[in-house]
Amino acid sequence: MSKTYNFCAGPAALPEPVMLRAQQELLDWNGLGVSVMEISHRSKDYQELANKAEKDLRNLLDIGDEFAVLFLQGGASLQFASIPMSLLHSGREAEYVENGVWSKKAAEEAARFGKVNMINAVNIDENGIRSLTDSQSWNRTENPAYTHFTSNETIEGMRFSQVPQTNGPLIADMSSCILSERLDMKAFDLIYAGAQKNIGPAGMTIVIVKRELFEQMKFDGLPKVFNYEAQAKNGSMLNTPPTFAWYLASLVFDWLQEQGGVMRMEELAKQKSQLVYDCIDEDDFFTNPIAVKDRSMMNIPFFLKNESLSEKFLIQAQEAKLMGLKGHRSLGGMRVSLYNSVPLEGAQALVKFMREFKTLNG
Ligand SMILES: *Cc1c(COP(=O)(O)O)cnc(C)c1O
């Protein structure tokens, strides 16, 4: 049986060794004779797992003690609300850098709670090629409550290769790129990411927040679970955390460290995405509408010049065990997601298939 490669945008592929280990430990975890799903989050065994996962994540991303690391529920979308609910007060304005569907959703949610300056950061040229504009040209807020941006726009396939400058706290949605490239944590005040793309299964959200930022947050009138400071003080266990997702994330962190950490993932991300972009760019059979400098290493939307072939492409790809390539419903076409769990061989198999398809249909 040949291997299936999974290019789903999210929930996405998980590393095979992680899945095998989870399978092996499913009914008897840590020698307890029961599953990790079936034990108290306050038990000694689970606490050790939780602490180790946090330590490993800190190690992988070089996160210092000035940050709290939280393992929460509610998805990235809850953070869209929770951030402005605690930080956007006293008549201040927040900056939202907009370059795609997710950054727009984050801004729209924030606007329900306070004043928002939506900054359109995309230029579309006469050929329909989209690029990020220079932050010098943005209409900035003088003293923002914070600046929010989306490091990697999952649907459009657009990436900030440089962190935007700001004179307020900087907040990043890294749902689809966390752990795929090294970060300079000094630049950030809060980073959040839904787990289901590059961390583990759906149901958990990681928040990395500078403790100093707590001083600017207001939690009165909010549900207690939205209180970042209380979550930090209670080890993300104000209530029952998503224990199984946290466990699987811990296996992913182990696997990442064995693979050579984030530096290795970054090298692989460059390699895998370059293979696909090279294939797209070699002629006009396939197209990708993002300027080279702003292209994502994780999510690559692409289109057939002859759109009527898209259906056939997707059916034949599925038959070749290349799954999850259907484009987002808002864009159509195709999209390949190359998260950490997708091996280099997956990208190679896809590119081979794309070239064969082109030869037969070009
Ligand atoms: C998937 C995604 C989201 C939405 O995540 P949920 O956990 O479903 O709320 C938000 N932002 C980005 C960049 C994403 O890729």
List the helices and strands and how they pair.
Blueprint: E1 5-6, H1 16-25, H2 44-61, E2 67-72, H3 75-87, E3 93-98, H4 101-111, E4 115-120, E5 122-124, E6 130-132, E7 147-150, E8 152-153, E9 158-159, E10 170-173, E11 190-194, E12 205-210, H5 228-233, H6 243-259, H7 261-281, E13 286-287, E14 299-304, H8 310-319, E15 322-323, E16 334-337, H9 344-361
Parallel strand pairs: 1-15, 3-4, 3-7, 7-10, 10-11
Antiparallel strand pairs: 2-12, 5-6, 8-9, 11-12, 13-14, 14-16
The protein binds pyridoxal-5'-phosphate.
Residues 10, 75-77, 102, 150, 154, 173, 175-176, 194, 197 line the site of pyridoxal-5'-phosphate.
Description:
The two termini are 30 Å apart. This protein is 34% helix and 17% strand. α2 packs across α6 and α7 packs parallel to α9. The strands form 5 sheets. A 7-stranded mixed β-sheet has the order 2-12-11-10-7-3-4. The protein has a 3-stranded antiparallel β-sheet with strand order 13-14-16, with helices on one face. The longest helix has 21 residues. The chain is built from 9 helices and 16 strands. The chain has 2 domains: 242 residues, Aspartate Aminotransferase, domain 2; 102 residues, Aspartate Aminotransferase, domain 1 (Alpha-Beta Complex), CATH 3.90.1150.10. β5 and β6 form a beta hairpin. The chain is α/β, with parallel strands linked by helices and 362 residues long. The radius of gyration is 21 Å and the shape is globular. The protein binds pyridoxal-5'-phosphate. The site of pyridoxal-5'-phosphate (PLP) has 12 residues, from α3.
